[in-house]
Amino acid sequence: MVKIKKALNRRTAGVALVVLVIGIIFWFVHPSVAQQGGHGGHQGRNGPVPAVLATAEKGDVDIAQQALGTVTPLANITVRTQINGQLIQVAFQEGQMVRQGDFLAEIDPRPYQLTLEQARGALQHDEALLKDAQLDLARYRKLVAEDSIAKQQLDTQESLVAQYEGNVQTDQAQINTAKLNLTYCHIVAPVSGRVGLRQVDQGNYVQVSDANGLVTITQLQPITVIFTLPEDNLPAVMKRLASGAELQATAFDRTQSVKLAVGKLESVDNQIDTTTGTIKMRARFDNQDNILFPNQFVNIVLLVDTLHDATIVPSAAIQRGAPGTFVYLVKDDNTVSVKPVKLGPSQGDNVAITDGLSPGDKVVIDGADKLRDGAKITLPTDKPDSSDAPTQPDSSKQHRSNP
After folding, report:
1. Which residues in the chain land under pLDDT 50?
2. What is the full DSSP assignment across 266-320?
3. Distance of alpha carbon 342 from alpha carbon 363, whole angstroms
4. Exposed site from 113, 245, 288, 378, fewest CB < 10 Å?
């Protein structure tokens, strides 16, 4: 038993000796590792913090409201027939652009032409009767003046003339109706716009009661976008409109990365939707390139006003914490101080500061998460101090120190 204990003690002592020798060799070969670790830890706790700065500038900031809108045409008209008849010609192509008054289709005019001729014949007949009755009336008046006939006969003749005059007027109205029906046979575009899909083929018998009509025409130039804004934003918009200002509206795509068109605010609805707390507005666009299409969803940026000569900093400089909204203001000695600020409107990556900063002030925009009031910073362009750099051992000395 004693021999076993002695053997274990010798083995333990041997292992300890080997570890000690390895440690001594490592120390002489890599003496800078321990030095670098100690120095680096000291700098991480008490040394300057790397930071990126930006300078507050003076400029203009747009005060704009953003909203989701739907492209809505000013006119979307279903072209219908105003008379019954056979469709003998279709003169439009689906999807083509037409102007107001362009010929679209024609209904067989022959029945209505015959009706017109019949009305003209009736008019000619009744005009002849009227002329004869008027001649008799003139004779009767002379005879009554001579006391040759009874006045009752004159009164009867006057009534007959009035009757024939009414018949002539009726005939003339029937002629005008027949002419109007002939005009309706020639169907033209009521507005300028894009023609939709054809609803009736040539050769069909069309009627006034047809629900689908012949085709739909949608006006594209100009076109509007209907969008909604929160009721809290309404006073600023109405104030600008009351002053006579023309508010610019810009349409962007769904991702808000592509500008589609620039227009202006045209009208504001007359009441607020109580269920959503929003109000509808309509913006008008010329749409000369037809990039806005009916029922398309777009993002609208409504330029309400412009804040001139404002102090502007990047949004990344704004911090929020116990002091409220603040920035890290950089002093001349490269130390920072917590500076509370009041924010104004923002535009893109910049925000206006209404109180707390002046143009030319430098603020931290990167590295602020490691700062505190009074901390010292270093800039990316600063060179490290030579006293802080770790000493690199001479390779020749390392070689000579190796056993």
Report:
1. 1-8, 29-44, 385-403
2. EEE-SS-BTTTTEEEEEEEE--TT--S-TT-EEEEEEEEEEEEEEEEEEGGG-EE
3. 15
4. 288
Bridge pairing between strands 297-314 and 342-347: unpaired
Residue 357 carries which DSSP code?
-
Extract the tokens encoding 171. 């005939």
Contacts of 398 (CB under 8 A, 6+ apart): 28, 29
Angle at 128 between CA 137 and CA 125, to 5 degrees: 140
The torsion defined by the Cα of 86, 88, 94 and 96, in degrees rounded to 10, comes to -120
pLDDT score of 44? 41
User: CA 256, CA 269: separation in Å to the nearest integer?
Assistant: 25
Res 23: pLDDT: 62
Read off the amino acid at residue 369: D
Distance CA 150, CA 250 (A): 86
Cβ proximity of 193 and 75 under 8 Å: yes
In the prediction, which pLDDT does 12 show?
59
Give the helix, strand, coil percentages of the chain, each rounded to 5: 35, 35, 30
Which pLDDT score, from 0 to 100, does residue 31 have? Answer: 44
For the chain, what is the largest distance between any 2 Cα atoms, rounded to a whole number of angstroms? 181
- Work out the burial of residue 330: count CB atoms within 10 Å of its CB; fewer than 13 is exposed, 13-18 middle, 19 or more buried: buried
DSSP 3-state assignment of 142? helix
Measure the CA–CA gap between 224 and 7, rounded to whole angstroms. Answer: 99
* 8 A C-beta contact, residue 133 and residue 161: yes
Query: What is the C-alpha to C-alpha distance for residues 161 and 173, in angstroms, rounded to an integer?
Result: 19
Q: Which of helix, strand or coil describes residue 187? A: strand
